[in-house]
Design brief:
Elements lengths: L1 H26 L15 H7 L4 E6 L5 E7 L7 E6 L10 H9 L3 E5 L18 H16 L4 E7 L1 H10 L7 E7 L5 H13 L4 H14 L8 H4 L7 E6 L7 H10 L4 E6 L7 H4 L1 H15 L2
Parallel strand pairs: 3-4, 3-5, 5-6, 6-7, 7-8
Antiparallel strand pairs: 1-2, 2-4
């Protein structure tokens, strides 16, 4: 009987390990090449992607080549926005937001995060690894556009987490403000929520997954914490979130906003699902961004 029980426990442990390895592969490792879903681009995306642009390349501290597009403002401008995309997305997917800032006469830099798009890398860092990359992109932008350029950091979902964690680093005075659309509090919280919603697995599964991430990617999920990073940040920050976000609950944005001690604004878009705030209420979205920028980055 004891040997049967031990064998049963062993099988359970093997199943649990297999599940955690699958979570690492699905959520951290660079995906294998898959056909992109066929979607009809919006008018703004089409216009923006046809604007003149340059390709910028950054060599990261750990020897990766990262890729970005630079789209200059129509008129003379010392305002520049750096755009950071969501998990499993790429810079082209940020074209709607690029067009928003282009209309505000901003220079726009759209960045492929590590392990996505045209940027190298094997693993996503949930913002922890990317925060160092983002800091380097800030320096490159200043070097290319001049010391008078004033920078706004903007990100969606994981991109927002990247921005939040970048805000916790020492930054040059050129960086004037940040906008976080749908950030999570921590990667641990986000993955626990996803695992519970999709698979109804126990919370400790994520803890084991984090240890496997540490072995494979060199960081643990608890290190990817916008909530912790913002404790040392003082930039003006606009927090945006959809009220009906089914992927990253709005309570996470509320927690980030409540604990932040710098200048801040909070915008919740009613009825908006995950990353649908701009599409759901474009007028309010743009109005809040313009008002925030006029006050903190003019």
């Amino acid at each position: 009987m004891l040997s049967i029980a031990l064998g049963f426990v062993g099988l359970l442990l093997l199943d649990l390990l297999s599940i955690c390895l699958c979570l690492v592969q699905e959520n951290v490792a660079r995906p294998t090449a898959l056909p992109r879903p066929v979607t009809v681009p919006t008018t703004d995306q089409q216009i923006f992607l046809n604007l003149p642009r340059e390709t910028w390349c950054l060599d990261t501290c750990d020897g990766l080549c990262q890729d970005a597009w630079y789209v200059p403002a129509t008129g003379a401008s010392h305002h520049t926005v750096l755009l950071f995309h969501d998990f499993r997305a790429d810079k082209a997917g940020m074209a709607n937001y690029g067009m928003l800032f282009h209309r505000l006469n901003y220079n726009v830099v759209l960045i492929d995060n590590r392990a996505t798009g045209q940027s190298e890398g094997k693993y996503t860092g949930y913002g922890y690894l990317e925060r160092i990359d983002a800091r380097c992109w800030v320096d490159m932008t200043i070097a290319k556009l001049g010391t008078e350029t004033e920078i706004v950091l903007f990100g969606t979902a994981m991109g927002a987490a990247i921005v939040a964690m970048t805000c916790g680093l020492p930054l040059p005075p050129n960086v004037r403000a940040a906008i976080l659309d749908s950030s999570y509090t921590t990667a641990i919280d986000e993955l626990r929520y996803q695992v519970n919603q999709a698979y109804h697995l126990p919370a400790f599964t994520v803890g084991l997954t984090s240890k496997l991430v540490k072995l494979q990617a060199g960081y643990s999920l608890d290190q990817a914490s916008p909530l912790a990073a913002l404790k040392s940040a003082r930039l003006p920050i606009l927090f945006i979130h959809g009220a009906d976000d089914e992927t990253t609950p709005v309570k996470m944005a509320d927690e980030l906003y409540t604990h932040y001690r710098g200048a801040k604004e909070f915008c919740v878009i009613p009825h908006a699902a995950h990353l649908q705030s701009y599409a759901t209420d474009r007028k309010q979205y743009v109005t809040r961004i313009v008002g925030f920028l006029d006050h903190h980055a003019a």
